[in-house]
Amino acid sequence: MEFKLTSRILPNVRRRMLKDLLEKKSFIRIIEAHNGLSAIIANNIKEHYKDEIREFDGFWASSFTDSAAKGYPDIELVGAESRYETIRQILNSSNKPIIIDGDTGGEAANFEYFIRALEDMGVSMVIIEDKKFPKRNSLEGGTIQDQADPDIFATKIKRGKEVQISDDFMIIARIESLIAGSGLRDAIYRAKKYLLAGADGIMIHSKQRDPKEILNFAIEYEKLTKELGFRKPLVCVPTTYNTITEEELIEHGFNIVIYANHLLRAAHKAMKETASIILRNKRAFEAESMCSPVKTVFKDVGFLDVKEKDLKYIKSPIKVIIPAAGSDPEFNIPKGMTLLKSKPVLQRQIETLKNCGINDIIVIRGYKKEEFTVDGIKYIDNDEYDEYYILHSLFKAEWDMGGGFIFIYSDILFNEQIIKNLLNSKGDIILVLDNSYTYHKHKIDKILELVLTKSKPSEQTRDLYQIKNKIFRIGRSINKDMADYEFAGIAYFSEYGVEIIRRIYNDCKMNHKGNFHEADSFEKASFVDLIQEVIDRGFQVDILEVHKGWIEIHNKKDIEFAERLI
Ligand code: SPV
Ligand code: MG
Is 139 in the pocket of ligand 1 (CB under 6 A)? Predict the structure, then answer.
C-alpha cells in the first residue's frame, strides 16, 4: 500500500493527467484526501472485482475535511498557506491528479494568486462556488447561504483563466442555487454565464437525499450545451443522495463524481470508538481490533522501506539470547557448561556465533550460576528457575530483545551455515527445523520437540534453505511417526516478531489460567508452548529447513557422540 519515493511524478506531468483522463474515459472517480496518510490510502487502494481492477482516479482536497482535520468549522477560516500545506502533503504522497476545493475563491485578486500557486504545484483543477465570502458549508440545514452576484462571480472566473499559463489547468464553477433555494432556473442561468466567462465545467451541488434535483439539472444542462454549441464536464458530489450509482450518473451525463468527505468521516468514527473502548476497559487491549497494526501504518508511510534500505547498506549486528538457567537431573552442572573435549558447550556456541559476526550475546543463568565462567557475554539472572521455566528465563531478557534476536538453546551445537542462512531468511518469526529427523526416528530414545506441518517436507530437500510450509503443531507429545520435523532449538525474531511474542507473553502472564499447551501452567511453559500460542493466534511462523548440521546434548550418551564429532 505504501507510496514509494520513486513512484512520484513532476508537477507538469501531474497537472496534465486529469485532462487526459477526461478525454480518455469521460467519467472520473475522485476521493477526498485531507493529509498525506489519507492520500497514500486513496492513491494506492485497489479493489479487484471480477476481471476489473477498480481504483480512484484522483483526489479532492476538500475544504470541509481540511478544516475539520485542523479542528475548524468549514467557513473559509483556514488560510491559503495552510491549505497549500495540506495540498503539498497530498501531492508528496501520491501520483494522481488533484482537484482543489477553492471555496468562494475569495476576492478576484486573491483568486488570481491562488491560481498561480495551484498551477505551479501541479494541481489540475480548482472548483469555486458562487457564494459570498466567507461561505458556510453547504450541507448544514438552516445556515445562511448567500449566493454571489452571478456577474461578479463570472468576472472572477474570467480573471482566473487569464492568469493561468498552462493549457492543462481547469477552473470549474460550482453552482449553489439548489443549496441556497434559488432553484433550477437560476442554476441554469448561472451555468450559462459561467461557461461563457470561460469556466472549464460546472459542478452542481445538492443536499437532498433524493438525486432528483441534480438529475433534472443534468437534463437542462444537456439542453444548454446544445444551445451553446460546446460541452464542458459536469461534476457532482453525492454525499446526501448517496444511493445513486456511478452507472446512473454516467447515464445522466456526469463526468466527475467526488466522494467528498468519506475518509475523514471514517477516521473520525473509528477514533471516537477507539477512545471510548480504552476508557471503558482502562487499557488498550480491547481497542486493538479497531486499529491498524503499527506495522501496517509503518509500511504505508514508507518506514519499512527506509528500514530495508538502511539494512541493505549497514547490516546491523543481531543479538543472541541463550536461556541456560534450568537444571537437569542427569547433569550436576548447568548443561551449557558441560565440557566437550574440555571446552564448555557455551564457549563453543559463542565461537561459532563470533565467526558469524555476532558478538552481542546474552545468557540467562540460574542453577549454579557461579559455574558460568565464559567471558565476553552479558549475563542475566533467573533466580526463580525452579518455579519459572525456560520461557520465563527468556523473558528475563525482554528489554534486550529490542530490534530482533536469535534464540538458541544452551545445550546444542550448530554450524555457522545455519546461523548465516537464518540471517538471510525473510520472516518475522523463523524456526530452524531439521528434516533428517524422519530418517532416524526409529533410533530415537528421548523426548524431542517435534513439528507437524500442513504439507509433508519435500523428499529432495537435502540442503539448507527456507521453505513455504505452514506449521500447525509443535511440542513434545506429537506422535513420532506423524511428525515432519524436529525443532533444532534455534529461532529468529525480527523487531515485529519480538512485538508479537512480547504482546502474547504479557497477555498470557496476566490472564492465562490452567494448562498452557503441553505445560501444567503458564509458569512452567516451555519455549515451544509459546510458539504454539503464536500459531494458534494466527501469526505466521516461518521455517528454515535444515538437514543435520547441529546436535543436542540431552544426555550423557550425547556427550560421547558430540566429542567423537568435534
Ligand atoms: C467539501 O468537501 O468541502 C465541499 C463539499 O465543498 S460539501 O461539504 O458538500 O459542501
Ligand atoms: Mg468545501
Answer: yes
